[in-house]
Amino acid sequence: MKRSRSLLVAATATLALSLAACGTTEDSDGDDSSTDTSAGPVTVTDARGEEVTLDAPAKRIATTEWNTTEYLISLGVQPVGVSDVKGFETWDQSVELDSDATDIGTRGEPSIDTLASLDLDVVLVTDQLVGDAIAQIEKTTPVIVVPGGDAKDPIGQMWKNVDLVAQVTGTEDEAAELKTDFDEALAETKKAVEASDAAGKPVAFNDAYDAGGSVSVRPYLEGSQIGGILKELGFANPWSAIGIEGDPAYGLGQTDVEGLTKLPDDTLYWYIGNDAEADPYTDALKDNKVWTSLPFVEAGNVTRLPDSIWMFGGPASMEAFLDAVEDTVA
After folding, report:
1. Which terminal residue of the chain, N or C, has fewer Cβ atoms less than 10 Å from its own Cβ?
2. Which pLDDT tens digits describe the chain residue by residue (330 residues)?
3. Secretion signal: which residues (predicted)?
4. pTM (two decimals)
């Protein structure tokens, strides 16, 4: 089944049309082309603990990180500016970005001049910006800092982020619909897993890259969003059991090929890649004796999940991941 991509793209279009239809109101002079400000000012507290007040729900928005880009589109709001548009469209195809979105530079160092030229209501950022970028942006445009993640409650933090963006844009009803759809998709996938031979097995989810001939593996522990989803589905996470620790924000660890020898023999080894980059498992490690002799490799239990599912994204990406899990265990 491919529930999430088709339904969410359709829902995004529908929501965009409905928002456009109800986004105007008559003022005292009878001009029905004016923007609806009936919702009044919007005040939110961001990740810095700072209160940010906007005159009305934001419509012209730029995003410096791809998770907030995805949140907006899922809520029916197309961002005006996005960091690294080509990268976003390569790594996150769970939602569709409008072709006229302006590229504002890299995710860590957006172009301050470009942002200032876009007549924005607000810029959504995470705490990954370098230097004094936030202070520079705030000279012309309000900034709201959205938490990148929380390894103590990764799925809960995702929904807090979605709710924050929904409050900023006046799309709380759409956020509630996303939550309902996600819960239904999660329950459906959980049933499929429970009915499969994979139920309860250890899943070592990761991504990897070739660093000058040495393959570096990045495990996704329970504190990652993907780790949180896998836990909800009843899978065991073997990474922490072999001594790998994750960072406090994203629940990501680090190991190498030799470290994989500690994984249980019955491990299901799932990973994410992208055709834009070489696959270290099929390229760099294809003749590596340590890799090829691992029990789960010999058993054929290595699976590359579909490309372009952003592992740090929002509900749309997580539903695409649930689809991929169902296909994998079927």
Report:
1. C
2. 445 433 444 444 443 433 333 333 333 333 333 334 457 899 999 999 999 999 999 999 999 999 999 999 999 999 999 999 999 999 999 999 999 999 999 999 999 999 999 999 999 999 778 789 999 999 999 999 999 899 999 999 999 999 999 999 999 999 999 999 999 999 999 999 999 999 999 999 999 999 887 999 999 999 999 999 999 999 999 999 999 999 999 999 999 999 999 999 999 999 999 999 999 999 999 999 999 999 999 999 999 999 999 999 999 999 999 999 999 999
3. 1-21
4. 0.88
Q: Residue 51's domain is classified under what CATH number?
A: 3.40.50.1980
Same domain flag for 268 and 301: yes
Q: Is 328:303 a contact under the CB 8 Å cutoff? A: yes
Q: What Å distances lie between residue 267 and 9, 235, 270, CA to CA?
A: 34, 10, 9
For 60, 178, 179, 188, the CA distances from 232, given in Å and listed in that order, are: 36, 18, 15, 12
Whole-angstrom distance, CA of residue 236 vs CA of residue 194: 13
Torsion angle, alpha carbons of 309, 315, 316, 317, to 10: 0
20 in a structural domain: no
Q: What is the domain count for the chain?
A: 2
Residues 6+ apart with CB under 8 A from 241: none
Which residues span the domain enclosing 293? 197-329
